[in-house]
Amino acid sequence: MAGFVYIIYSEKWDQYYVGSTTVLTTRLFQHNTGRNKSTRGGEPWELKHTEEFGQIQQARKRELEKKRKKSRAYIEWLISGAG
């Protein structure tokens, strides 16, 4: 099953969130309706970046790579299209 890594942004919190999923539209809906504990209260979340992979396992691996960097500058670099 295909997978996606995504980056969403909350202007309210001035914060990015990195995640992975198999159905991007459903996952974004969940973030924007308070169904995710980590992002509840930051609505509305805006999709800023996506990467598609052949399998969800590959997407989860990439998600962890991004999260391990713990770098807002790196995330903003990816969003800018340089990455």
Describe this structure as you would to a colleague.
With about 80 residues, the chain is α+β, with helices and mostly antiparallel strands. Helices cover about 35% and strands about 30% of the residues. It has helices spanning about 25-30, 55-70, 70-80, and strands at about 5-10, 15-20, 45-55. The model has no long low-confidence stretch (mean pLDDT about 95).
In short:
This protein has 83 residues and is an alpha+beta fold.
Q: Could you name the key traits of this structure?
A:
GIY-YIG endonuclease; three-stranded antiparallel sheet; single chain; alpha+beta; 83 residues
Write the layout of secondary structure elements.
Layout: E1 3-10, E2 15-21, H1 24-32, E3 45-53, H2 56-69, H3 72-79
Antiparallel strand pairs: 1-2, 1-3
Shape: globular
CATH fold category name: GIY-YIG endonuclease
Class in CATH?
Alpha Beta
Number of separate domains = 1
Largest sheet: 3 strands, antiparallel
H and E order: EEHEHH
Strand order of the largest sheet: 2-1-3
Q: What structural class results from the helix and strand content?
A: alpha+beta
**Count of DSSP E strands?**
3
- Count of DSSP helices? 3
Helix fraction? 25-40%
CATH architecture: 3-Layer(aba) Sandwich
Distance between the termini: 25 Å
Low-confidence runs: none
Assigned CATH superfamily? GIY-YIG endonuclease
Which percent range describes the beta-strand content? 25-35%
